[in-house]
Amino acid sequence: MPRTPTKKTPMSDAHKAALAQGREEGRVVRRYLEALESAKPKRGRKRTADSIQKRLAAIEDKLLDADQLTRLNLIEERRRLEDELNHGDETVDLAALEKDFVKVARSYGERKGITYSSWRAVGVSAATLQKAKIARTRA
């Protein structure tokens, strides 16, 4: 039995605005969470530009007589080190991202059903959640 085509109704302006708001809030939350992750202290000694250069030189030496699998791994390590060297001095304005996050976190969280403990589990501080007026609740 053939299906009758359903008539598509155009989205209302309110619906379009709600979708746009959701996309923007999602972007703000994503940028803040990614900045939190990248700002986490790393284990071990911090690498300096000099130590990265030394490692890059060692990789170049090893590439001369490496088998194919080792070569692949060394090339990838070299790429990551070069990225770190080129982008290592870039800083993220975490305070500005937090300010934007505080503005949208509550409505975003309520709409998506995100609990206080879930925000905490991904690294959002209790103080930031308090600023965003996200209360601790028991499920």
- Helix-strand topology string: HHHHHH
Total strands: 0
Cα(first) to Cα(last) distance is 48 Å
Radius of gyration: 23 Å
Largest sheet: none
Number of DSSP helices? 6
Which term fits the overall shape?
A: extended
Per DSSP, what share of the residues sits in E-state strands of 2 or more residues?
Answer: under 5%
Question: Can you give the mean pLDDT?
Answer: 89
Helical fraction equals 55-70%
Task: Describe the structure concisely for a colleague.
By secondary structure, this protein is mainly α. The chain is 67% helix and 0% strand.
Provide a descriptive summary of the structure in words.
- The structure is a single chain.
- The protein is mainly alpha-helical and 139 residues long.
- It contains six helices and no strands.
- The termini are far apart.
Provide key terms for this protein.
139 residues; mainly alpha; 6 helices; extended; 0% strand
